[in-house]
Amino acid sequence: MFEFKLPDVGEGMHEAEIVRWLVNPGETVKLDQIMLEIQTDKALVEIPSPVAGVVGQILKPIGQIAHVGDVLINFETQASAKSSTIAPMVATVPVVAAVSAIGTFTPAESGVLASRVRAAPAVRKRALELGVNLALVKASSPDGRVLLQDVLAYAEESKHKPTTNGASHAPILETVAPPPPVVSTTPIASGGEERKPLVGLQRRMAERMELAWRTIPHVTTFEQVDSEQLIEMRRQIQPAAEQRGVSLTYLPFIVKAVVAALKANPIFNSSLDEKTREVIYKRYYHIGLATATPDGLVVAVVRDADKLSLSQLGAEIARLAEGGRNRSLKPHELSGSTFTISNYGSYDGGMGTPIINPPEVAILGVGRIKDEVVARNGLPIVRPMLPLNLSFDHRLIDGATSGQFMRVLMELLENPARLMLDMV
């Protein structure tokens, strides 16, 4: 009998929710056939069958929380009938195919690539998504085949290795809550009321918000920016962007201004190590964008936003927004942000008090540009005003520092031509 245990799917996770089983007891399954969907902190992840065989028992039903290492399902395989080893593996695939897909390797690695790597297509696909060179992964199966858990373990280990510029990868968001009791997914009708358990992304979102509100002392400041010049600049360059296939919204401009404000005020691009009580300053700028999906809120991450042009930012933001809506984003696209923007203006929202995305120390809420009556030279006039709401961790940031951050941000958005000074 082959037992499959819940692996860490690359986010440093401790647990996941069983969302959907795609196989049933007694069913014959193929190697790498998608058998299960789980909900991690960030993403919906498909799990392929690690063996070919007949499904024995499903040990974790839908809606239950499983911890890494828990046995989820078992199989009867040809090999298990003879011994406890796993079933026969698939044929080898020339490593050249994997090399071309995985990307850039060091000269030292190139010698390793001369050998062949045994791995199933789904494992290769997952390695590609994570940027893992299969030739460097130690296989754990008895016949030398690289398994999914081998790739995930290698990817997790690589996160903690120093990068070429000496910085480590962004920290992984921690899972927070102890395992809750098993819940039923069946609504319970009672009189004129109906109860439904929080499941999937909704449950994760609730946990994250509870953690942030319970552990971080939030303070929120409110400002408005005269956005006339921003509107005019966008109007002028929008046709050129459309020729490149990019629909340029105001958000790329805001991201550019935010990155400049972060560089001028590094404490806003940091995190607090709760165990060591150290502030970790980040020298990279991964901007999270809170994105509504049919199942709840996710934070899609624009990596190295400081290295992207306005049109590149526009294209990347559009890609992430579409991926968020159809739930196709991968875990690495939903983790590692260093500062988050919540653009509730796209839903006609105005002022708000955004909740910080742990372990970050601040979040910017952006409302919709609306005509407002303001005073100029003692006279009331109507101006297009952009609402900005900055929530920050008061353990690390005080009112004066938040004011400095907002001044940089507001000056750039009121005078967007200044963004050209540092434009990539």
TrEMBL record:
Molecular function as annotated in GO: acetyltransferase activity; lipoic acid binding
Ranges where the Peripheral subunit-binding (PSBD) domain occurs: 118-155
Needed co-factor(s): (R)-lipoate
Main enzyme class: transferase
Keywords: Acyltransferase, Lipoyl, Transferase
InterPro entries to which the protein is assigned, alphabetical: 2-oxoacid_DH_actylTfrase, 2-oxoacid_DH_E2_comp, Biotin_lipoyl, CAT-like_dom_sf, E3-bd_dom_sf, PSBD, Single_hybrid_motif
Residue span(s) of domain Lipoyl-binding: 1-76
Enzyme Commission number: 2.3.1.-
GO annotations of cellular component type: cytoplasm
Family indicated by similarity: Belongs to the 2-oxoacid dehydrogenase family.
Designated name of the protein: Dihydrolipoamide acetyltransferase component of pyruvate dehydrogenase complex
